[in-house]
Design goal:
Strands 1-2 form a two-stranded antiparallel ribbon. It is globular and about 55 Å long. It is an all-alpha fold. Helix content is about 75%, strand content about 0%. The chain has 11 helices and 2 strands; from the N terminus they run αααααααααββαα. α1 packs across α8 and α3 packs parallel to α10. β1 and β2 form a beta hairpin. The chain has one domain.
Length: about 280
């Protein structure tokens, strides 16, 4: 039970959280993602060990992930911007509709069944992994970005999906931009900028949505946002993100794609196993 969980046990669980923070920061800098695809599985295992009820566990993972993503994505964005790789026009055009999409998605997700959120995570991750691993430069919708209306629609959809599965949407942004001929390094840099804005309404939505379940949540939680998870992962991932950004500009496009796709497949396998054995 959560009420009998000792602080010494919490300190033991801080180790995987800190390790997850390191990898999250590297992913944020390397791939322009907030690291939610890593944060959510790490938090899921930690909260399972803490005895968090399955009915609220996935929501707690997603809400906490969104909170951790913000400072991490901000550091990644700053590092990429310093190298002149960000597309400012895309950032301005996409931010508001993505913000609205997250606000809507977080309301839906806060009251959804945890297995539904797991399934959403698996579907989105598989799409992203297939695109990354294929490595086909001819997999394009067009050679230039579409008009403002279509771009706003993409941003809104990405915002909804980000709220459902606790990611910053950076991987989805990178995928969409690359389908329109944007070079991978510029797509990664721009997605980092969008990733620092997208989670904000989602954090509020999950905090409010989980307020009525406080008895089922671990100590130091604000609704579906765990302050313990945030305190352990956010500072570490934020500090490491600039290193990941520097590495990204030294690696080839194909190396980035293979690394990203392989990681996503591992996460998919983990969640599929969890759903099968539940």
């Amino acid at each position: 039970m959560l009420s009998s969980f000792s602080w010494s046990e919490l300190l033991t669980l801080a180790v995987p959280l800190l390790a997850g923070g390191v990898f999250t920061g590297l992913l944020a800098g390397l791939l322009g993602v907030g690291g939610g695809a890593l944060i959510v599985p790490v938090l899921y295992e930690v909260f399972r060990a803490m005895g968090v009820d399955e009915a609220v566990r996935m929501q707690l993972c997603v809400g906490t992930s969104l909170a951790i993503i913000v400072p991490t994505a901000l550091q990644s964005y700053r590092a990429h911007k310093a190298r002149g790789a960000v597309l400012p026009g895309v950032l301005r055009l996409w931010s508001l509709p993505a913000f609205i999409g997250v606000a809507l998605g977080s309301v839906v997700a806060a009251f959804a069944d945890g297995r539904v959120l797991q399934a959403a995570f698996i579907v989105i991750a598989l799409v992203m992994a297939a695109k990354a691993l294929a490595g086909r430069s001819d997999w394009r919708i067009a050679d230039t970005l579409p008009g403002p209306t279509t771009q706003r629609a993409y941003a809104f959809f990405i915002g909804v999906m980000a709220a459902l599965v606790g990611i910053s949407g950076g991987g989805l942004v990178t995928m969409v931009l690359s389908l329109y001929g944007v070079p991978i390094h510029m797509a990664v840099a721009t997605s980092a900028g969008i990733g620092m804005i997208v989670p904000l309404p989602g954090i509020i939505g999950y905090a409010v949505g989980g307020w009525s379940h406080m008895a089922d949540l671990p100590p130091l939680s604000i609704g579906y946002v765990s302050l313990i998870g945030f305190a352990c992962m956010a500072p570490v991932s934020t500090a490491v993100a600039p290193l990941g950004a520097r590495l990204a500009h030294r690696l080839s496009r194909r190396t980035l794609e293979i690394g990203f796709g392989s990681f996503l497949l591992l996460m998919v396998a983990r969640f599929l196993a969890a759903m099968i054995w539940q």
